[in-house]
Amino acid sequence: MQSQDVAQRHAPASGPADVEQAEATLVEHYPRLVRLAYLVLPPGPGRGRRVLTAHALTQRALPRGKQADRIPAQPAGRTPARRGPAEPAARPDDPGYAYLRERVLRAALAAARPRRALPQPLPRVWGLRLLPRSGGADELALDQRLSKLSAPARAAYVLRGLDRLSDDDIREILEAAGVDDPGGALAMANSVPAQPGLLSSPEFDPCTLQARPTDLLRRRQHTRAALGAAAALAVCGALLGLPHSGWGPDGAAAPAYAENPAAQAALDPAKLTRVSPTAWHTAARTDFSAWPARGPLTGDKDLLRRALAVWARPGQNVRVSATPGTQTGGPAGPPQLLYAGQVDAARVVILYDGLRIARYAEPADGTQGAALDFARVDGATGAEASALVLGRADGNVQYLLAPWVKKAATRDLMKPAAAPAPLAVHGGVTAPLTSPALATGNCTSWTVLQVTGGSGTQLATDLGELVPARLTAGRPGATGEAATTEGLQAWAPFACSLATERSSGVRSVNAWDFAKQPLPDGSGAGQWACTRAETWRGDGAAALAQFRVPGSRYGAVTAKGTGTAACGPRDPHVLAGVLWKSRGGHWYLLAAGSPDTVAIHASGGITASAPGSLLVAKAAQGAQAQLKGTLAGGRAIEGLH
Questions:
Q1: How far is CA 493 from the centre of its chain?
Q2: Which 3 state secondary structure label does DSSP give 257?
């Protein structure tokens, strides 16, 4: 029955074509289709060229003229729907998506054949390099494995990982796309371990791009010397075809175009700062400057040289990522070495220049390419400088811990009463633990790192960056650690909301239960909370107002403010509201303010007022209201939005 359904999805439809509906389907599923094309295309031409080609192939998938007669009919009354972050990007029973997927897949497979590849001049963006964000060493390793597969095998792997299709479905789709040996493609795809979480990472998202200029100095020089370069290529063209002999002294770094004593010192592995393993006992600050150099490869001068050179001059094959607000330029002087060793399938070097953490990763098998990730850590002390991410793989994350951490454990933030599970640590490196940053599908748990050291016990969570975000709980300005009984209880219903702060440069997140509100139908009291994420760059903080009714495991986000001071130490006040339906079927506006709120007023679709910090008013379904509150000192505040 399943194979029959697949065949029906690929069969031409009878009846008039609906090109407008096809365009709507393409727009709805565009990011999914572009990601599919990007992953199937060969990596040879470079990531920038691969991005542009993926977009070109997807946009050309919209049929024209007589081709439009083959568009499958859509179910009656169906229109593209807005989807939440946990919803699937495409339904398997959507004939329009299946039709466009086949066209994109067919075009990507054709482009992977050398004689049918797209001409190099088009499309092209002059003066810019458009690259997806880098996910780090794990995504690099997966990309290396996929590059060794044939294009049909890559297609089979991606269809299984992204669209979660069965082997029978994949075989049907590959046959429809013109693949001669679908069974062989499936067998080859099975040689690469399934990692659907990595396929969904920003590393493979051609719709989330970072723009970088090409090398301006060299471009000018190349323009003035175009004729000489052409002659040199004609004479030496045969030499360019020789096999690569492995890593050079500078690895994947670009050629040097500027030299000065400070730059040369920053590239010398012998001048790296190395801190004594016992220095943290007497250090004035417990920050990254007190971390010793650890890892089995701290004496590998060639590896350290490549890491420093790539940091100073990342080449075309280097994938650079940085948390928002973090500069990616080279170090001003010799940085401090924190770690050098092998993590999974990559050699990793972690460096610190006083303001930033830089993680360099290269494939351990000696193949070309590297990843360079940056995170801003200025002012980090104590709990904020207790852990760094070494790598992620197979849904797990490994940390390098501060020397003052005495023991480590894992804890499910959604199970506050459960005891923490001990976590093995060897040489400062933890055993792998589940990473919520890589989780897909419904949120049923949220695993965090618990560390115990000189300043007590703290919790931190992986949000997809080099430095895990610290978790706290309590009233702004008087927060405590989330590892306490009160902190765990405060975080349990709202842990899943942390997913909204992935890859945002988050430094810490606080949960504050600011109100309890009796429900008008007598079914108990609702819980109001505000979670606020502070960033390393200082601006862009996000505050979420959340509401949970009795008996519900999860809280619901009712309002979000970005770049706001609400719920923070500078403005420890908040006002939020929600439309709520009682068990009897009646709708109400529920609003609550922080404890120092003395009056709440609603206007717009609902007009109501109440003294104190709570408001309940009858409402119609879908009604909208604007909230304003008055604080004890007379100051007016608006509802969070």
A1: 23
A2: coil
